[in-house]
Amino acid sequence: MLTLLIGLICTVAVIFTCTAIYFRKRSLQKNRNHFNSPNEALTTPPHILLIDPNSETQRATERALHLLGCQTDSTHAEEAIEYARVRMYDMILLDLDQPENAVYSVLSAIRGFTDERGMTPIVALYEDLDHEAERILRDERGVNDFVKKPISLEDLRRMLGTHVVDPSMQDVANGMSGILCQLDEHLP
Fold first, then answer.
1. pTM of the entire structure?
2. Quick one: pLDDT at residue 166?
3. Which of 66, 77, 118, 166 has the greatest CB tally within 10 Å of its CB?
4. Strand order of the sheet with strand 122-126?
5. How far apart, in whole angstroms, are the C-alpha atoms of residue 131 and residue 118?
C-alpha cells in the first residue's frame, strides 16, 4: 500500500514539474508564431505524435507519455501524414519497425509540412539499426534523434528534455531523473 502511495505521489510530482517546464518553454516561444492559435501557449501540454504499427507498444508508450504530462495522438504510418498535415506537434516519435518505404514516405511528407511551419523534432524508435541506416535517416531524411527499444520513462524524459523543454529549464528536468527511475520500477 505504501509503495502505491509513493508511486502516486511521484506521478503527481512528475506531471506537475513537466507541466511547469512546458509552460515556461511555451511562454518563451509564444512570439514565434509556432502555435495553432494564440492562446495555445498558455493552455496545452506538449503534444506528441506517436507513429507505431504495434498497438501494444503504442499503448505502453502513450501511457508513459501521459505520466510525463503529454498529450498524444497515436497512429500508423499511413494516417500519420494526415495527422501531421493538420496539426503542429511538439515532437514526433516514429517506430522504425515497419516497412522501409512507409518510414521514408512518412518522413518526407512530415518534413515537407514542418519545413513550412518550423522544424518539429522527429525521434526514431528502433530495435536494431546499423550506423549507415542511422546516417541516412539523420542526414538525408531529417530524423533528429534515436532511441533503442524498449523505451523507458527515462528515455522519454531525456527526449522531452532535449527536444521539447527549454534549455534554461533543463536542470529542473534533470532533477526529476531519480523520481522517474523510481516510478519506472512501479509500472507493469
1. 0.65
2. 52
3. 77
4. 71-75, 47-51, 91-95, 122-126, 145-148
5. 27
